[in-house]
From TrEMBL:
It holds the Pfam family ABC2_membrane_6. PANTHER family: INTEGRAL MEMBRANE PROTEIN, SLR1174 PROTEIN-RELATED. InterPro entries: ABC-2_transporter-like (IPR010390). Keywords: Membrane, Transmembrane, Transmembrane helix. This is ABC-2 family transporter protein. The chain crosses the membrane at residues 43-68, 80-99, 137-156, 162-184, 196-215, 250-270. It comes from Paractinoplanes hotanensis.
Length: 286
């Protein structure tokens, strides 16, 4: 939210849709420019993702080599390698970790500046996060995928609908991830310090989102429960399964539809929590 222009028109039903779209685009551009300034961090983070990509890939390929039929969870070696390397690229696009801006502003009292702006905090932070995701898409996806393709055989889509469905799934993953992170940060309205919830989120989200291993390596009943009862598989597992065509087209579309439902639910919940917090907000240190 730093350096956002508070003079932009409000996003509201009472204003022309063109003004609201222009405001949203301006906020997205601000988020993109903010992350574009961290060039050294981008390079270092990409290198780290590549190193961990090798570790994850060799572990999962070893699991595949030792599994009956060589297809643990229904994945062959090419699909597992693609799952790992594209997942390493998408990690920063989806951005499940490392965001505590809202919690910090609540703790310091700077959140009051966000509340007097003409744009809802949830909408403003969402636009900025989409700008961040666009920057990561341009800078963080290509290198891990290229390195993975150089050292491992990767699976490529064989159905035309996979690519557009994957693009939609990634967008929904970004929105769902933002809503989850916003809710975790918003606990600071009641706790004053959200470091505990943020640490819990960091530890749990990677496992339950499918970052460390495909969730389909778990028992079927647990996998289905996680998919239906939580939004977390939609953050990484769903887009990656769509890309490697783990399922038939109908099930692919169904998983993306479920992902869209969870993204809408979590975003609506973020708006509701924000409204509740504003009613009882006590500014700390301001």
């Amino acid at each position: 939210m730093d350096a956002l222009d508070a003079s932009v028109p409000a996003i509201s039903p009472s204003r022309p849709i063109g003004a609201s779209v222009a405001t949203f685009r301006a906020l997205m551009g601000s988020g993109f420019r903010r992350w574009a300034t961290y060039r050294q961090a981008t390079i270092a983070g990409t290198f780290t993702n590549i190193v961990f990509g090798f570790l994850r890939c060799y572990v999962l390929l070893a699991v595949a080599a030792g599994a009956a039929g060589g297809t643990p969870g229904g994945y062959d070696a090419r699909q597992l390698a693609t799952f790992v390397w594209v997942g390493q690229g998408l990690l920063n696009v989806v951005g499940i970790w490392g965001w505590g801006d809202l919690a910090d502003r609540i703790r310091t009292g700077d959140i009051v500046a966000d509340l007097v702006r003409p744009v809802s905090p949830v909408t403003a932070y969402l636009a900025a996060d989409l700008g961040r995701a666009a920057h990561a898409l341009l800078t963080r996806v290509g290198p891990p995928v290229l390195v993975g393709a150089l050292f491992f055989p990767l699976a490529t889509p064989s159905r035309w609908q996979t690519v557009p469905l994957f693009a939609v799934s990634v967008l929904l993953a970004v929105i769902g991830s933002f809503a989850c992170r916003y809710l975790v940060n918003a606990t600071a309205y009641w706790l004053d310090d959200a470091r505990g919830p943020l640490m819990f989120w960091t530890l749990g989200s990677g496992v339950l989102a499918g970052l460390y291993f495909p969730l389909r390596l778990l028992p079927d009943w647990l996998t289905v429960t996680l998919w239906v009862a939580t939004p977390l598989p939609g953050l990484l597992q769903t887009p990656l399964d769509v890309l490697i065509e783990r399922d038939q087209p109908a099930l692919q579309a169904g998983l993306v539809a479920l992902q869209a439902v969870w993204a809408a639910i979590m975003l609506a919940l973020a708006h509701w929590v924000q409204r509740r917090a504003e009613r009882r907000l006590v500014v700390q240190g301001g």
